[in-house]
Amino acid sequence: MQRQALAWRRAGVRIAFVPTMGYLHSGHASLMRRARRIVRPSGKLVVSIYVNPAQFGPQEDLSRYPRDLPGDKALCGRMGVDCLFVPGTDEIYPADQSGSHSAYVMETRVSSSMEGASRPTHFRGVATIVAKLFNLVLPEVAVFGAKDFQQAAVIRKVTADLNYPVRIVVAPTVREPDGLALSSRNNYLSVEERSQALVLSQALRFVARRVSLCKSGVPASRLKADVLRMVAAQPRARVDYVEFFDPATLQPLQRVSRGTQMALAVFVGKTRLIDNALL
What we know:
Helix content: 25-40%
Structural class: alpha/beta
Strand order of the largest sheet: 3-2-1-4-5
Strand content: 15-25%
Number of strands: 10
Mean pLDDT: 96
CATH class of the largest domain: Alpha Beta
Distance between the termini: 41 Å
Largest sheet: 5 strands, parallel
Shape: globular
Radius of gyration: 19 Å
Number of helices: 10
Low-confidence stretches: none
Order of helices and strands: HEHEHEHHHEHEHHEHEEEE
Protein backbone atom coordinates (compact mmCIF):
# COMPACT_ATOMS: atom_id res chain seq x y z
CA MET A 1 0.00 0.00 0.00
CA GLN A 2 2.72 2.45 0.94
CA ARG A 3 4.75 1.72 -2.22
CA GLN A 4 1.67 2.27 -4.37
CA ALA A 5 0.82 5.50 -2.55
CA LEU A 6 4.38 6.79 -2.97
CA ALA A 7 4.23 6.02 -6.70
CA TRP A 8 0.98 7.95 -7.04
CA ARG A 9 2.39 10.90 -5.08
CA ARG A 10 5.54 10.99 -7.23
CA ALA A 11 3.33 11.10 -10.31
CA GLY A 12 1.40 14.07 -8.89
CA VAL A 13 -1.78 12.06 -8.30
CA ARG A 14 -4.04 13.26 -5.47
CA ILE A 15 -5.18 10.61 -2.97
CA ALA A 16 -8.44 10.72 -1.02
CA PHE A 17 -8.94 8.25 1.80
CA VAL A 18 -11.99 6.81 3.60
CA PRO A 19 -11.01 4.58 6.55
CA THR A 20 -13.73 2.13 7.66
CA MET A 21 -14.30 -0.98 9.74
CA GLY A 22 -16.30 -2.58 6.96
CA TYR A 23 -19.90 -3.80 6.79
CA LEU A 24 -20.37 -0.85 4.48
CA HIS A 25 -23.68 0.92 3.99
CA SER A 26 -25.00 4.04 2.26
CA GLY A 27 -23.45 6.24 4.94
CA HIS A 28 -20.01 4.99 3.92
CA ALA A 29 -20.99 5.46 0.28
CA SER A 30 -21.72 9.14 0.98
CA LEU A 31 -18.18 9.52 2.36
CA MET A 32 -16.77 7.93 -0.79
CA ARG A 33 -18.78 10.28 -3.00
CA ARG A 34 -17.49 13.26 -1.02
CA ALA A 35 -13.90 12.03 -1.31
CA ARG A 36 -14.23 11.48 -5.05
CA ARG A 37 -15.59 14.99 -5.59
CA ILE A 38 -12.55 16.43 -3.83
CA VAL A 39 -9.87 14.62 -5.87
CA ARG A 40 -11.98 14.32 -9.06
CA PRO A 41 -11.76 11.42 -11.50
CA SER A 42 -8.05 12.04 -12.06
CA GLY A 43 -7.29 11.35 -8.38
CA LYS A 44 -7.26 8.07 -6.51
CA LEU A 45 -9.87 7.00 -3.96
CA VAL A 46 -8.62 4.56 -1.31
CA VAL A 47 -10.93 2.81 1.15
CA SER A 48 -9.56 0.73 4.01
CA ILE A 49 -11.38 -2.01 5.92
CA TYR A 50 -9.93 -2.97 9.26
CA VAL A 51 -11.77 -3.91 12.45
CA ASN A 52 -9.29 -2.39 14.88
CA PRO A 53 -8.97 -4.42 18.12
CA ALA A 54 -7.18 -1.55 19.86
CA GLN A 55 -10.35 0.57 19.98
CA PHE A 56 -12.52 -2.15 21.57
CA GLY A 57 -12.63 -2.55 25.34
CA PRO A 58 -12.41 -5.94 27.10
CA GLN A 59 -16.21 -6.28 27.37
CA GLU A 60 -17.02 -4.89 23.92
CA ASP A 61 -18.16 -6.53 20.72
CA LEU A 62 -14.99 -7.14 18.69
CA SER A 63 -15.83 -10.77 17.92
CA ARG A 64 -19.48 -9.89 17.16
CA TYR A 65 -18.72 -6.89 14.98
CA PRO A 66 -20.49 -7.54 11.64
CA ARG A 67 -18.33 -8.39 8.65
CA ASP A 68 -19.21 -8.81 4.96
CA LEU A 69 -16.10 -8.48 2.80
CA PRO A 70 -17.78 -9.73 -0.45
CA GLY A 71 -20.56 -7.17 0.01
CA ASP A 72 -18.03 -4.46 0.86
CA LYS A 73 -16.03 -5.22 -2.29
CA ALA A 74 -19.19 -5.00 -4.39
CA LEU A 75 -20.16 -1.61 -2.92
CA CYS A 76 -16.64 -0.24 -3.42
CA GLY A 77 -16.73 -1.45 -7.03
CA ARG A 78 -20.01 0.39 -7.62
CA MET A 79 -18.56 3.53 -6.05
CA GLY A 80 -15.50 3.53 -8.31
CA VAL A 81 -12.98 2.97 -5.52
CA ASP A 82 -9.45 2.71 -6.98
CA CYS A 83 -7.90 0.75 -4.12
CA LEU A 84 -9.50 -1.32 -1.36
CA PHE A 85 -6.92 -1.84 1.41
CA VAL A 86 -7.73 -4.77 3.76
CA PRO A 87 -4.74 -5.39 6.04
CA GLY A 88 -4.50 -8.05 8.73
CA THR A 89 -3.78 -7.48 12.39
CA ASP A 90 -0.35 -9.11 12.11
CA GLU A 91 0.52 -6.40 9.56
CA ILE A 92 -1.01 -3.46 11.43
CA TYR A 93 0.27 -4.47 14.86
CA PRO A 94 3.42 -6.54 14.21
CA ALA A 95 4.87 -7.99 17.39
CA ASP A 96 8.53 -7.49 18.22
CA GLN A 97 10.77 -10.08 19.90
CA SER A 98 9.00 -9.46 23.20
CA GLY A 99 5.77 -10.59 21.55
CA SER A 100 3.87 -7.33 21.87
CA HIS A 101 3.12 -4.07 20.07
CA SER A 102 3.91 -1.19 22.44
CA ALA A 103 3.80 2.10 20.48
CA TYR A 104 0.50 3.98 20.59
CA VAL A 105 -0.80 7.50 19.88
CA MET A 106 -2.80 9.32 22.57
CA GLU A 107 -4.77 12.56 22.49
CA THR A 108 -5.40 13.88 26.00
CA ARG A 109 -7.81 16.82 25.80
CA VAL A 110 -10.78 16.44 23.44
CA SER A 111 -10.80 12.65 24.02
CA SER A 112 -11.31 12.83 27.79
CA SER A 113 -15.12 13.18 27.99
CA MET A 114 -18.15 11.32 26.60
CA GLU A 115 -16.84 8.37 24.56
CA GLY A 116 -13.44 8.71 26.20
CA ALA A 117 -14.96 8.50 29.68
CA SER A 118 -17.26 5.60 28.83
CA ARG A 119 -14.64 3.69 26.82
CA PRO A 120 -11.27 4.57 28.40
CA THR A 121 -8.96 2.96 25.80
CA HIS A 122 -11.12 3.66 22.76
CA PHE A 123 -9.55 6.87 21.48
CA ARG A 124 -6.02 5.61 22.02
CA GLY A 125 -6.93 2.87 19.54
CA VAL A 126 -8.58 5.32 17.15
CA ALA A 127 -5.66 7.77 17.18
CA THR A 128 -3.15 4.96 16.70
CA ILE A 129 -4.89 3.29 13.76
CA VAL A 130 -5.53 6.61 12.00
CA ALA A 131 -1.87 7.59 12.38
CA LYS A 132 -0.80 4.23 11.00
CA LEU A 133 -3.21 4.37 8.08
CA PHE A 134 -2.16 7.92 7.20
CA ASN A 135 1.46 6.71 7.08
CA LEU A 136 0.49 3.81 4.81
CA VAL A 137 -2.00 5.49 2.46
CA LEU A 138 -0.34 8.95 2.38
CA PRO A 139 -3.57 10.77 1.53
CA GLU A 140 -4.00 14.44 0.74
CA VAL A 141 -7.50 14.34 2.22
CA ALA A 142 -9.35 11.93 4.51
CA VAL A 143 -13.14 11.87 4.94
CA PHE A 144 -14.95 10.92 8.16
CA GLY A 145 -18.60 10.92 9.21
CA ALA A 146 -20.20 13.47 11.52
CA LYS A 147 -22.09 10.77 13.45
CA ASP A 148 -18.83 10.12 15.33
CA PHE A 149 -18.44 13.80 16.23
CA GLN A 150 -15.92 13.37 19.04
CA GLN A 151 -13.89 10.90 17.00
CA ALA A 152 -13.61 13.46 14.21
CA ALA A 153 -12.47 16.08 16.76
CA VAL A 154 -9.79 13.71 18.09
CA ILE A 155 -8.56 12.95 14.57
CA ARG A 156 -8.40 16.65 13.70
CA LYS A 157 -6.37 17.33 16.85
CA VAL A 158 -3.97 14.44 16.22
CA THR A 159 -3.54 15.50 12.59
CA ALA A 160 -2.78 19.08 13.57
CA ASP A 161 -0.59 18.36 16.60
CA LEU A 162 1.50 15.70 14.82
CA ASN A 163 1.83 17.79 11.62
CA TYR A 164 0.22 15.34 9.24
CA PRO A 165 -0.17 16.98 5.82
CA VAL A 166 -3.73 15.66 5.55
CA ARG A 167 -6.90 17.70 5.17
CA ILE A 168 -9.69 16.30 7.38
CA VAL A 169 -13.21 16.53 5.95
CA VAL A 170 -16.26 15.66 8.07
CA ALA A 171 -19.34 14.73 6.03
CA PRO A 172 -22.95 14.93 7.33
CA THR A 173 -24.62 12.04 9.12
CA VAL A 174 -26.76 9.86 6.86
CA ARG A 175 -30.08 8.73 8.35
CA GLU A 176 -32.84 6.27 7.64
CA PRO A 177 -36.15 7.87 6.57
CA ASP A 178 -37.39 7.57 10.17
CA GLY A 179 -34.36 9.43 11.54
CA LEU A 180 -32.15 6.61 12.85
CA ALA A 181 -28.50 7.35 12.09
CA LEU A 182 -26.93 4.70 9.87
CA SER A 183 -24.52 2.46 11.74
CA SER A 184 -23.11 -1.02 11.24
CA ARG A 185 -24.26 -1.76 14.81
CA ASN A 186 -27.91 -1.27 13.80
CA ASN A 187 -27.59 -4.81 12.47
CA TYR A 188 -27.63 -6.07 16.09
CA LEU A 189 -31.09 -4.64 16.84
CA SER A 190 -34.21 -6.77 16.99
CA VAL A 191 -37.41 -5.42 15.41
CA GLU A 192 -38.58 -4.16 18.83
CA GLU A 193 -35.19 -2.63 19.61
CA ARG A 194 -35.01 -0.99 16.19
CA SER A 195 -38.24 0.84 16.95
CA GLN A 196 -37.04 1.95 20.39
CA ALA A 197 -33.69 3.12 18.98
CA LEU A 198 -35.53 6.04 17.37
CA VAL A 199 -35.45 7.69 20.79
CA LEU A 200 -31.93 9.01 20.01
CA SER A 201 -32.98 11.10 17.02
CA GLN A 202 -36.28 11.99 18.73
CA ALA A 203 -34.33 13.39 21.68
CA LEU A 204 -32.16 15.49 19.36
CA ARG A 205 -35.22 16.95 17.65
CA PHE A 206 -36.99 17.57 20.98
CA VAL A 207 -34.04 19.49 22.41
CA ALA A 208 -33.55 21.44 19.18
CA ARG A 209 -37.19 22.60 19.35
CA ARG A 210 -36.86 23.60 23.00
CA VAL A 211 -33.72 25.60 22.32
CA SER A 212 -35.17 27.31 19.25
CA LEU A 213 -38.05 28.66 21.36
CA CYS A 214 -35.85 30.19 24.06
CA LYS A 215 -33.45 32.91 22.93
CA SER A 216 -31.80 33.15 26.35
CA GLY A 217 -31.00 29.44 26.42
CA VAL A 218 -32.13 26.51 28.57
CA PRO A 219 -30.29 25.00 31.56
CA ALA A 220 -28.42 21.87 30.49
CA SER A 221 -29.55 20.06 33.65
CA ARG A 222 -33.20 20.54 32.72
CA LEU A 223 -32.68 19.25 29.19
CA LYS A 224 -30.72 16.25 30.44
CA ALA A 225 -33.58 15.37 32.79
CA ASP A 226 -36.04 15.61 29.88
CA VAL A 227 -33.91 13.32 27.72
CA LEU A 228 -33.49 10.82 30.56
CA ARG A 229 -37.29 10.62 30.89
CA MET A 230 -37.70 10.14 27.13
CA VAL A 231 -35.23 7.27 27.08
CA ALA A 232 -36.63 5.70 30.25
CA ALA A 233 -40.01 5.46 28.52
CA GLN A 234 -38.46 2.87 26.16
CA PRO A 235 -38.34 -0.48 28.01
CA ARG A 236 -35.18 -1.72 26.25
CA ALA A 237 -33.24 1.57 26.35
CA ARG A 238 -30.95 3.14 28.95
CA VAL A 239 -28.76 6.24 28.79
CA ASP A 240 -24.97 6.06 28.91
CA TYR A 241 -24.50 9.85 28.63
CA VAL A 242 -26.17 13.03 27.42
CA GLU A 243 -23.88 16.04 26.94
CA PHE A 244 -24.12 19.63 25.73
CA PHE A 245 -20.87 21.28 24.72
CA ASP A 246 -19.03 23.82 22.60
CA PRO A 247 -18.49 22.20 19.17
CA ALA A 248 -15.04 23.78 18.76
CA THR A 249 -13.53 22.95 22.15
CA LEU A 250 -15.83 20.12 23.38
CA GLN A 251 -16.03 21.91 26.73
CA PRO A 252 -19.35 21.23 28.52
CA LEU A 253 -21.90 24.05 28.74
CA GLN A 254 -24.25 24.72 31.64
CA ARG A 255 -26.69 26.69 29.49
CA VAL A 256 -27.80 25.42 26.09
CA SER A 257 -28.54 27.77 23.21
CA ARG A 258 -28.36 27.82 19.44
CA GLY A 259 -24.94 26.71 18.27
CA THR A 260 -24.48 24.23 21.13
CA GLN A 261 -23.57 20.66 20.17
CA MET A 262 -25.54 17.82 21.74
CA ALA A 263 -24.36 14.23 21.89
CA LEU A 264 -25.79 11.14 23.50
CA ALA A 265 -25.07 7.44 23.85
CA VAL A 266 -27.85 4.98 24.58
CA PHE A 267 -27.90 1.23 25.08
CA VAL A 268 -30.83 -0.37 23.29
CA GLY A 269 -30.81 -3.92 24.54
CA LYS A 270 -27.13 -4.85 24.41
CA THR A 271 -26.36 -2.51 21.50
CA ARG A 272 -24.75 0.84 22.23
CA LEU A 273 -25.73 3.58 19.79
CA ILE A 274 -24.51 7.18 19.53
CA ASP A 275 -25.85 10.30 17.84
CA ASN A 276 -25.30 14.05 17.89
CA ALA A 277 -26.50 17.30 16.39
CA LEU A 278 -25.69 21.00 16.27
CA LEU A 279 -28.68 22.68 17.89
